[in-house]
Amino acid sequence: MSATVTKEGPYYSSGAISFSSLRSNFKKSSSGSVKASELRRNTDVNNTEPIVPDCTENRTTVSVSPQQGISTLNDLKVSQFRNSIKYYYITQTGTDLNFNIGSQSWNNNLVRNIRKWMYLNGTTGSNSTGSSAATFGTANTVNLTISVSGSIYGAGGAGGTSATVSGGSGGPGLSVSSSGGLNIKVQVNSGAKIYGGGGGGEKGANGGPGSGGVCTGSTTTSGCGGAPGCPGGWYETGGWSGGCCQTYCQWCGWSTCGCQPCSQWQRYRSCAYSNPTSAGTGGTGGDGGPGRGYNNFSGSLSGSPGIDDGSSGGGCGSTKGPAGSPGGPGGDWGDSGTNTPSSGNGGPAGAAITGSNYTVIGTLNASTIQGSY
Question: 79 phi and psi, to 5 degrees?
Fold first, then answer.
């Protein structure tokens, strides 16, 4: 991390202090008059361009002993401008994760009306969708410009899984919020990249069921004079009679007196059963792809293929279902993840700039901004 403080000034560390130089340094004019009343320290937080701003440095400038700042009243002296400043700058370079603008060395000047610039010239990123790549959240800040010439990358959302189904949300790039703040601007310069993370793709749908089977069987019961009923769970499909199984003869002594042709016939009953079996299950849908983000800067956004791992069902001709469908691809910078026929959704994109109480100005196009702002 590299963040460097510079100031316009300090002026008049030594030497004479003339009204013409005060006009040049504070009114930013090389000609014309300057009044002493214009050079009083202005403490109005609603003033967006104070001639002599209120700041820690201008409250404690060194003149003669005892130390005193630039007066806000009629007792103004040019000697009070010793080591005074006009503007305050902090410049970030290099690479930082979750860069906190408010925690930099502002010397208690955020709530004072001196114009301040935070130059984000390097790269800031986040590996977590719950944290912005760069953040500002100090209350009552006034006259702050966040000037972006570098790159700000939010985190990409996770792809949907069996546990989540829906893809995860992408993370924000820059978060700016200041309760009670005034004149807070985000200046987007032509080479800037402020990109929200892409949302994760939805998990692929599981494959549909296969077809069920039918288990069948048949048997025959028989008996002399009558066939037994079908076994439990079976049903009768028909019946018939066979040959004689019993003849009645009348005996006279040691011989028969005569016999009937047949007294009992063999009886038959046909039985069958038909039991449906369960259908096989479909395969598992593939996991959704991850969204583009600082944590997935150049990796694939594709979801996983569906799996052909369905069960075969209850047998007797049952079949398994088709393979699951692929997971949805994750979203590119500032884009939502892809929906699939599954029961969830692709993850929403992260915002390029989010928060409240700020104004976005500058070069705003598809190259500098990806995501809402």
Answer: -65, -20
- Say whether pLDDT at 133 is over 60: yes
Please write the tens of the pLDDT for every residue from 4-16: 999 999 999 999 9
Averaged pLDDT of the chain: 94
How many C-beta neighbours within 10 Å does residue 145 have? 17
Query: Could you report the per-residue pLDDT of 66-101, keeping only the tens digit for each?
Result: 457 999 999 899 999 999 999 999 999 999 999 999
Q: Which of 364, 200, 206 is nearest to 286 (CA)?
A: 206
Structural tokens at position 1 = 């991390």
- Is pLDDT above 60 for 63? no
Angle at 88 between CA 87 and CA 89, to 5 degrees: 125
Please tell me the distance from the alpha carbon of residue 50 to that of residue 29, in angstroms, as a whole number: 14
Q: CA-CA distance, 96 to 107, in Å (whole number)?
A: 22
pLDDT at 194 over 60: yes
> Residue 86, class by beta-carbon neighbours within 10 Å (0-12 exposed, 13-18 middle, 19+ buried)?
buried
pTM: 0.85
